[in-house]
Design goal:
By secondary structure, the protein is mainly beta. It has no helices and 7 strands. The protein is globular.
Length: 145
């Protein structure tokens, strides 16, 4: 059985229409971000085809912009902070070691600069369980730590 060349593949997300990659900004571009808190604003929330959660266009005071997956509670015009000295609030981006125990978090990077790999889908979150000398233990949506 042959398929028509112009037919749309069944059960596949239309990822070729994506708005932009959903990644955190590179920390090399934002020098000193772990020692300070950079202020930014959510300029626009956009629908991204094939994704269950909206993307937010974030613009920092320096003019740097990036798209990222936003959690519930973020709206256009919301002030956010990025860095090690940022306040723990919905939408702010902090190193995982600076987040207090019991806090719900989403869009977690496995390695700095990978753009976030864990708890990135809509409605999912992980919880910070404890901080140890070897690192931070989190509870994932699957129940694994």
């Amino acid at each position: 059985m042959f398929r028509d060349a112009d037919a749309v593949p069944t059960f596949r997300a239309s990822t070729h229409k994506r708005v932009a990659p959903a990644r955190y900004p590179s920390t090399t571009q934002l020098k000193g971000s772990f020692e300070t808190a950079l202020n930014g604003v959510v300029e626009q929330l956009v629908h991204d085809p094939g994704r269950g959660t909206p993307l937010g266009l974030i613009r920092f005071e320096s003019g740097e912009t990036f798209y990222t997956v936003v959690p519930e509670g973020v709206y256009e015009g919301k002030q956010i902070q990025f860095g090690g000295k940022a306040v723990v609030d919905v939408g702010n981006i902090l190193p995982i070691g600076k987040i207090p125990e019991g806090t719900m978090i989403c869009n977690i990077e496995l390695r700095p600069g990978d753009g976030g790999k864990l708890s990135k889908s809509s409605g999912s979150y992980a919880t910070v369980v404890t901080h140890t000398p070897n690192g931070t233990i989190i509870k994932l949506p699957s129940g694994q730590t």
